[in-house]
Amino acid sequence: MPRRDGEVTMTTPSSGTWWHSVSSTRAYEQCPRRYWYGHVAKLPAERHVPPAWRIGSAVHAGLEAAYRHRGTHPDAPLLDGLPAALDALRSAWARLELPHDDGSAERAAAWVTRSLQRDVLATSTVLGVEQPFRDELSPGHRIIGYADLLLDRDERTSEVVDHKVTRRRAAPDELIDDLQLNLYGALVRRQWPDRDRVRATLHYPVAPAAVTVTLTEDTMAAARDHLTTVARRAAADTTFEVVPGRHCDHCPWRPRCPAG
C-alpha cells in the first residue's frame, strides 16, 4: 500500500519511463527515502549544496567550455580555449551565488588556467563534452549518464574522463572497480562496439594531475549488473524506508524527512 510522508503519497509510477543512473543507484543504496524524493517524486531540493560542491560545479563549467572549444578547433592548442573557459567560470560563479571576497574565485580561475596550460590529459580528439549515454535495461527502465569528457585515443581506444575538483587523488586500484567509470565504459562499448578498449581517467585540475586505468570487460559488466540489480529493487519498493547516516548532513530533502 502507498505510504504518506507529510502531505506526499509515497507511490511509484505505474507507467512511463524510469531513468536509472549512478547517482540514483548511490542514492537508493544510501537511503531509499532520499532516492524516492529525488528520483521518483522529483521534489525540488530544499537546501543549497555546500559551497565546496558549488565551486566544483563552476570549475567543471570552465573546463567544459575549454574542451568544447577544442572539439570545434581540433588543430588549435588547448590553451586557446582559456578565454571561453574563464567566461564560463565567471558565469557559473554568479549563477551559483558563490563569494567574491574570500579568494576562492581567483583560486578557481588559477586551477582552470593551469589545467589548460599543462594539459596533463595530453588531449587528443574530443568525441564529446558532457557526453550523454542512454541505454535500455528493460521496457520502461533506461540508463542515463553524462561523461565529463570523452576522448578518442586511437581507432580502437576511447577514454572516459571525470573531472574531480579535490586535492585527494585516487590510486589506480581504486578506479578499477569504480561504478561510474565502469558503467560509462560499458555504455561506450555499446555505442561504439568497434572500439574494444576503454580507458578511464580521473582528472584533478587542482593539482593538475590525472590517474588512468584500462577497464576490463568483467568490471564493466559488473557495474551494469549492479545498477540493474538496484534499479529492480527500487522499482519493487513500496515503503522507501529512511536510513539515517552521515549522508543526511547534505541531503537536500532533510527538512521534510521524518529523520530530519
Task: Describe the protein.
The chain has 260 residues and is of the alpha/beta class. The protein has a domain at 125-231: Alpha-Beta Complex (Lambda Exonuclease, Chain A), CATH 3.90.320.10. Helices cover 41% and strands 22% of the residues. It has helices at residues 22-30, 32-40, 51-72, 82-95, 104-118, 172-175, 179-191, 217-236, and strands at residues 3-5, 8-10, 18-20, 125-138, 141-154, 157-163, 197-204, 209-214. Strands 3, 4, 5, 6, 7 and 8 form a six-stranded mixed sheet that branches. Strands 1-2 form a two-stranded antiparallel sheet. Strand 5 and strand 6 form a beta hairpin. It is globular and about 55 Å long.
Offer a few descriptive terms.
single chain; 260 residues; alpha/beta; Lambda Exonuclease, Chain A; 6-stranded mixed beta sheet; two-stranded antiparallel sheet; 22% strand; globular
Q: What structural class do helix, strand and pairing data support?
A: alpha/beta
Number of strands: 8
Give the number of helices.
Answer: 8
Query: What shape does the CA trace take?
Result: globular
CATH fold-level name of the domain at 125-231 = Lambda Exonuclease, Chain A
Tell me the helix content. 40-55%
Most strands sheet: 6 strands, mixed
Q: How far is the N terminus from the C terminus?
A: 24 Å
- Mean pLDDT over the residues: 90
What is the CATH first-level class name of the domain at 125-231? Alpha Beta
Report the portion of residues in β strands: 15-25%
CATH architecture of the domain at 125-231: Alpha-Beta Complex
Instruction: Indicate the low-confidence ranges by residue numbers.
Output: none
SSE arrangement, N to C: EEEHHHHHEEEHHEEH
Give Rg in angstroms: 20 Å
